[in-house]
Amino acid sequence: MSDLPHCPACDSAFTYDDGLQYVCPECGHEWSREAATDVADEAPQVRDANGNPLADGDTVTVIKDLKVKGSSLVVKVGTRVKNIRLVEGDHDIDCKVDGIGPMKLKSEFVKKA
Length: 113
What we know:
Elements (H helix, E strand, L loop, with lengths): L15 E3 L2 E3 L6 E3 H9 L18 E3 L3 E2 L6 E2 L4 E2 L3 E2 L6 E5 L3 E5 L4 E3 L1
Antiparallel strand pairs: 1-2, 2-3, 4-7, 4-11, 5-6, 8-9, 9-10
Family: Belongs to the YjdM family.
Protein name: Zinc ribbon domain-containing protein YjdM
Pfam families: YjdM, Zn_Ribbon_YjdM
């Protein structure tokens, strides 16, 4: 199995080394070796509404009333959510809210407790 990085454009595993750069045969994207190491070191960091970095297992507090889609329930301001998990995507916090159940939150609507 090859230890070459996947293509950053199409996530293809069939990249190959072409001198000073990597090439993807599926989409034709070319990138330098330095760019590949920079991308690997640069993990996306999730930050709360105040700019504090969040991590798995943190406790956060909701800063705005949030309506639960498809329900008449509301997550009230000041609700503390324990043991969050960070995920990729638009809603980047996966958690369980007491009285409501499992849901996904956007980090812009919480602050680190």
